[in-house]
Design a protein that fits this description.
The complex is a heterodimer. Chain A has twelve helices and no strands. By secondary structure, chain A is mainly α. Chain A has two domains: 62 residues, no CATH class; 201 residues, Orthogonal Bundle (MetI-like fold), CATH 1.10.3720. In chain A, helix 7 packs across helix 8, helix 8 packs across helix 10 and helix 10 packs antiparallel against helix 12. The radius of gyration of chain A is 27 Å and the shape is flat. The mean pLDDT of chain A is 87. Chain B is mainly α. Chain B has two domains: 60 residues; 203 residues, Orthogonal Bundle (MetI-like fold). The termini of chain B are far apart. Classes of the chains: A mainly alpha, B mainly alpha. The interface between A and B is large, with 57 and 54 residues.
Chain lengths: 274, 292
């Protein structure tokens, strides 16, 4: 077979891209030009980045040369880590407890007044639309600096997400068991306890664990706006240009997050298998 | 005989019930212990809440605008109108546009870098096994450090402004997308790569014609998902001076320009929800189209 024969077999495949799929091509061109336009807007230039990174050079060398390691304030660092873990745990735990009744109200099967359901769902949407750091900064204004504000912001951010996930889980639950319970004349609480809960409880637990995992990550950064935890220690040291201690804290954060991830993954696997 | 069988099962059931109960007690015990420990660590107690809630209520009532229903459509000079509340709307709109562009640029940069690195960090198609471990650890490091920490560093290096935020978000995005892309690559059927190799194609053409066409739908949908996340990230990355609307929000919160706080937060909520909805539409459409 010559090249021509092959081309005649499937002529479209060998056409240039703008003939094969003009929509994709124009989209691509549009996107690239928009991207370049944005770079122009932001005054982006390679030389700027290069100069910036060459400014970083002393920072990077300061990061890896650890001077008088044994005199660092380890107690504040480790209490920061403990605070971060505590914020993540308590926030997720309280949010889980609060979200169970909320999700029952937000689900179609158990709550008949649609206007309240609608309002709760929109409220959850709004809570989810606000980033956790914005919550943190608001709570810091209201409750003062410290991990308590961080706990509340983890709690609020979780309320939005877990409430939505839980109510979706309830909506997706099998109705047959619930109808069976109803047919026996069980009370509403008994229907929820024995018809619904056995189905959704594993989902709730695994989702809460997953959120505990992701909240340890987000609790790390809450300190940037003053909401306590390891983030506060880290930003203080970065502002004071203690780069070696900053790198040490970053490494500790990475280790902590990895450990939490592994533990929670193991527990989740176990629950799902059960 | 059936009695015996019944007894056997009953005893089995009761023993299982017992272990189950023990487990439950253990779990509840552990939860209580960790609850108590963490509440002492971050002084979470009743009086704190009781004292704080009225202050929170005060703050919220302060930042909410005092709209007057009779004057709501008046001009920006009258107190109580929407225009008075949003007297700075042009500035906010520009900042939101900047925030959006920051997300676009950083997602694109992250996408390109992650796509390149993902071929090295996928076990089945990596050209070099040591490169695989190196790139994998590297990506882990990139996504392990939060954006805002990078932003503090880059604000230090590049100066205050959106460029630092873009760099920070791009780096984090590279790490996060690189992992997802590598997982997609690892699930690809390698037969088409073998076919290309048997025709004398090199590694590059294997990737271009054997891998990319298969992973493209997933890759694009992950990128759009990441774009939604980056929109959120770029609204807050300004808290450390890295550009976007977050910088303005931090300013108005710290200077107690109460009504502007709610104005900006409302705009952010609307933008985030609008982008979430439209991006999930596009995502469904793209994935559906390519799979068809």
């Amino acid at each position: 077979m010559t090249d021509k024969d092959i081309i005649s077999l499937c002529p479209r495949a060998f056409q240039p891209i703008w003939k094969r799929s003009p929509i994709v091509f124009t989209g691509f061109i549009f996107f690239v030009s928009y991207f370049l336009f944005c770079l122009y807007l932001f005054d982006f230039s390679v030389s700027k980045i290069v100069i910036g990174f060459s400014n970083m050079k002393p920072v990077l060398t300061a990061m890896v040369t650890w001077k008088d390691f044994f005199n660092w304030n380890f107690s504040s660092i480790f209490s920061g880590l403990a605070q971060t873990l505590g914020m993540a745990f308590l926030g997720t735990f309280l949010a889980t407890l609060v979200c169970i009744p909320i999700s029952l109200i937000a689900s179609k099967q158990f709550f008949k007044i649609s206007i309240i359901r609608f309002l709760i769902k929109r409220l959850l949407d709004i809570i989810r639309g606000v980033d956790i750091l914005i919550w943190a900064i608001i709570y810091v204004r209201a409750f003062g600096l410290g991990p308590f504000a961080g706990l509340l912001s983890v709690f609020t951010a979780d309320l939005g997400t877990l409430g939505k996930l839980f109510s979706e889980a309830i909506d997706n639950a099998d109705t047959k068991q619930i109808e069976g319970m109803k047919a026996t004349g069980a009370s509403k609480i008994a229907v929820i306890r024995f018809g619904l809960f056995p189905q959704i409880f594993p989902i709730f637990i695994s989702q809460s664990l997953y959120f505990f995992e992701s909240n340890t990550r987000s609790a790390v950064i809450l300190g940037v706006v003053g909401a306590g935890g390891i983030g506060l220690q880290l930003t203080e040291r970065m502002k004071a240009q203690y780069w070696d201690q900053s790198l040490f804290i970053i490494l500790l954060i990475l280790i902590m997050v990895t450990i939490i991830d592994t533990i929670s993954r193991i527990i989740r696997m176990k629950i799902i298998n059960e | 005989m059936s009695n015996k069988l019944l007894e056997k099962h009953l005893s089995l059931y009761s023993s299982q019930l017992k272990t189950r109960k023990l487990w439950n007690i253990l779990v509840v015990f552990l939860l209580t212990i960790s609850f108590l420990i963490s509440s002492t660590i971050i002084d979470f107690n009743f009086s704190n809440i009781v004292n704080g809630v009225p202050r929170l209520g005060d703050y919220i009532s302060q930042i909410l605008p005092s709209l007057d229903i009779n004057l709501i459509f008046e001009n920006s000079e009258t107190e109580g109108s929407i225009k008075y509340w949003y007297f700075n709307f042009k500035k906010y709109a520009f900042l939101l546009y900047e925030t959006f562009n920051m997300a676009v640029v950083s997602t694109t940069i992250g996408f390109v870098l992650a796509l390149i690195l993902s071929f090295f960090s996928a076990r089945n198609i990596t050209p070099n096994i040591y490169g695989y471990y190196f790139v994998k650890r590297f990506l882990e490091f990139l996504r392990g450090v939060p954006e805002i920490i990078y932003a503090i560093l880059f604000v230090w290096a590049l100066g205050i402004g959106p460029l630092a935020g873009i760099m920070a978000i791009s780096i984090h995005t590279t790490g996060a997308l690189g992992k997802l892309f590598a997982e997609v690559n690892e699930n690809v059927d390698l037969k088409s790569c073998e076919a290309i190799r048997s025709h004398g194609g090199n590694w590059l053409s294997e990737m271009r014609y054997g891998i990319i066409p298969k992973v493209l739908p997933n890759v694009i949908s992950y990128t759009l998902l990441r774009f939604e996340i980056n929109i959120r990230a770029s609204t807050v990355i300004g808290f450390v001076g890295a550009g976007g609307i977050g910088q303005e929000l931090y300013l108005v919160i710290n200077f107690n320009y109460y009504e502007e706080v709610s104005a900006i937060i409302l705009l952010i909520i609307i933008t985030v929800i609008a982008i979430d909805i439209s991006s999930s539409r596009v995502r469904q459409k793209i994935v559906g189209e390519i799979n068809d």
